[in-house]
Amino acid sequence: MTMKLYFDPHSRAQVAKWMLDEAGVDYEIVPTLIREKAHKTPEFLKINPAGKLPALVDGRTRIFENAAICMYVAEKFPGKRLAPPVGSPERGRYLSLMVYSTSQLEPAMGDAIMKIRSNNSARGWTNFEAAKDAVERELGEGPYLFGAQFTAADVMIGSMFIWHRAFGGRSNRPKIDAYIHRLQARPKGMKFG
Ligand SMILES: N[C@@H](CCC(=O)N[C@@H](CS)C(=O)NCC(=O)O)C(=O)O
């Protein structure tokens, strides 16, 4: 059965699409336009109770939140080598970066776009500059977060910066800018922004 991606092109559903495209697997797009409130229908809320895009349905499995979708796809198609294998030494760092991308980097990036200035790390994240420091440390010499191997962590972390650019933001970090260009130059790279 073909996987179904609930998608609006002007949304973070582009992140899940990028992941599926990098995996090179079959999937079907189910247009779900936010401006038509298609993400708030009772049918859609049974898939994603939060009423947000994206969501992925694979037979009887439903997955919401981009990080979960990316991990699911990497796990379902291990041959695509989009995640360090379970049991490998890199696996812990991979899981950490996947969760970090959405628990700290995403809200910090959101604050930056909304021009919310706060150093109150009691919320669970600090600010976008602190997040950039962390990403720079993890990137090391690159070219990707896991050296030469492109993974779902690059989709999650990279897409946050691509999204930030789409809203007119600039990282002002040459190392991160070079990384984003590298990601967008990939044949299947997330193009907007
Ligand atoms: N952390 C979530 C963010 C999802 C999200 O905020 N989606 C937005 C679109 S970019 C949405 O559906 N907003 C509509 C709404 O909340 O009503 C993810 O990565 O899946």
UniProtKB/TrEMBL annotation:
Highest taxon of the lineage: Bacteria
Protein name (record): Glutathione S-transferase
SUPFAM superfamilies linked to this entry: GST C-terminal domain-like, Thioredoxin-like
Organism the protein comes from: Variovorax guangxiensis
Enzyme class: transferase
Entry keywords, A to Z: Transferase
GST N-terminal domain location: 1-81
InterPro entries referenced in this protein's UniProt entry, alphabetically: Glutathione-S-Trfase_C_sf, Glutathione_S-Trfase, Glutathione_S-Trfase_N, Thioredoxin-like_sf
UniProt-listed PANTHER family: GLUTATHIONE S-TRANSFERASE FAMILY PROTEIN, GLUTATHIONE S-TRANSFERASE-RELATED
